[in-house]
Amino acid sequence: MPTHWTDHYYEDKDGNKCLDLHHYSESGAMRKVKSFLYHMKREYLRSDKSRAHRFVDIITGVGKHSWRHYSVIKEDVEDFLDRKDYSYEWDHGGGRVTIDFYYSI
């Protein structure tokens, strides 16, 4: 069970900070992503690069309930992560991405 610490940010069972983008528009989701990554990266750097702050997750969903039947937000997030040279890996279902700040700085 996630422990909520803001509206759409929470800590998962592994202690990773997560951002859930379900129910956001494309523009709203990208504003949240940029803000989330900015704050989490600052937290990581302030923690002297602690392992506890190294990984964050963004849940985009796979677009199952989208009228397009794919996730535009997922594509936008991936494009942003590539442009900003973040190190990341998608889960096997493709609706959750884990960002590794250690390899992104």
From TrEMBL:
Gene3D superfamilies reported for this sequence: 3.30.1370.110
Coiled coil: none
Domain Smr: 19-102
UniProt xrefs under InterPro entries: Smr_dom, Smr_dom_sf
SMART domains linked: SMR
Pfam families (UniProt xref): Smr
UniProt-listed SUPFAM superfamilies: SMR domain-like
Protein name: Trichohyalin
Organism name: Biomphalaria pfeifferi (Bloodfluke planorb)
Phylogenetic lineage: Eukaryota, Metazoa, Spiralia, Lophotrochozoa, Mollusca
